[in-house]
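Here is one such tokenized protein:
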Amino acid sequence: MLTHLSIKNIAVIDRAQIDFSDGFNILTGETGAGKSIIINSLNILKGERASKELIRTGEQSARVDGIFTVSDEIKNEICDIIGIDFDENEIMISREFNLDGKNSVRINGSPITLSMLKSIGEYFVNIHGQHDSTSLLVKKSHLGFLDDFGGDKLKDALEEYKKVHAEYQDVKSKLEKLNTDETEKERRMDLLKYQIEEIEVANLSLNEEDDLTERRNFLANAQKISENCLAAFDKLYDGEETGNSAHDLIWEAVKLIEQITEFNSDMDTVCKELTDVTYIISDNSHAIKKFADSLECNEYELNEIEERLDVIYNLKRKYGVSVGDVLKYLEKIKKEYAEIEHSEEQIKFLSEKLKELELSRLEKAEKLSLLRKENAKILSEKICAELCDLEMAKTVFEVKIEDTEFSNSGKDDVEFLISTNLGELPKPLSKIASGGELSRIILAIKSVITGGKSAETLIFDEVDTGVSGKTAQKIGEKLYKMTKSAQVICITHLAQIASLADKHFLIEKKTENGRTKTEIMTIDGENRILEIARILGGEVITDLTRENAKEQILLANDIKKKIKN
């Protein structure tokens, strides 16, 4: 549920801090006070577009923060989607956007992308307003709602069907690939045969290219290597060019130190170590000389290496970025060649397999359809019962299921139909014209259907539009009953609904220092009575209106007790 909402620089709200409770949260206020800003802010937290037009005049950026407490199941699903683990069930979403169009989104302090926020938004809040494009009015979503309503039994049947359907599609794809005409087969086999021979003749090995490149560089620089080695030999030992080699100079130093060792025992150690150095220099110098003498620029070997590297380069250019990729490609085309070569047997095997899967898929699809039809009947009856409670007793709600082409979800085309007038045939839900009827219909459906991704917070934005009196009372009771399984936040203009609040917020627009701003405050006691009286009677509140407001709250308390019990 939503426990806290913080808004900064959104439209006429400079700063607002709202602490929601579980149960029934009501927001009321004059038209234009800024109630829609709350909905806009929550939509921003769900990943909807954050227009720079929403940023308060004179400010460079705006920010919305929401703190939610979620169940372990929802927490785990969110973690799987965004790839971030949370230890606690309290999740904070923060989103900041500025005039440059840049967005910053964080969840518990960790940055996430806007697309990630969109994918998890429905887990937090489900917002319904009379004029929003709710998914309940979109035909393609009706199948999902029905399947969610069907529970685990229907879900298991759907998974069984999906498994067989996926296997059917895979076998069908392989069969279509093999069932090409003979000319195409011959052409493909000729190409594969040429490619296989070209790669196999090269007799590639994984580390060959690196070894050849290293050897080529060595041979190409053989003269320089020889010259450097001979120069090093001269400086270290021979001294023919320099006159004094390192070996000769150190040896001369040793002779000088030998003459003073009798005066200092430490010098005797130094002398012995320097003598060892001369032997080391001598041995290594001769090793360098021997290596230099063995060097020659073998042009024939160099040319062979260049030709071999050229072969490898051309194969990589055709078949892969690396030698490893070329060898993988070889295995792939050899397998394809073998499949085409034995395609007749494979076609026969796959054709028989496809027939088996076709029968199995049909069986699974029919089982799925039967379960859907059973649940459709129950769903229709429950929604009609809800509509009866909402003063729409003559309304007919129907879940139409028709056969269609096989897809990943079965072979059923599902659409919600409704007739609000006796004697008229049910029509698509999206064709309902009356605002008051549409509000009650969607409220009834939401009361019955709980989707797999249902949020623990339901938000209703003026679902009471177009209704009054007894019907308004029924809508209020229906909304309050929802608080048994979810937190409900409702923006309303009706006293019958507002009086049922567990927590009541008043939204007021004020002018301060020449600027308009909206304030949101919790009201109870006398202030709440006055707000209910304002809703009942308008700007002028009489003693009678005030008494009516008190009576409305007392009646609401009785209704709430009955619902809770």
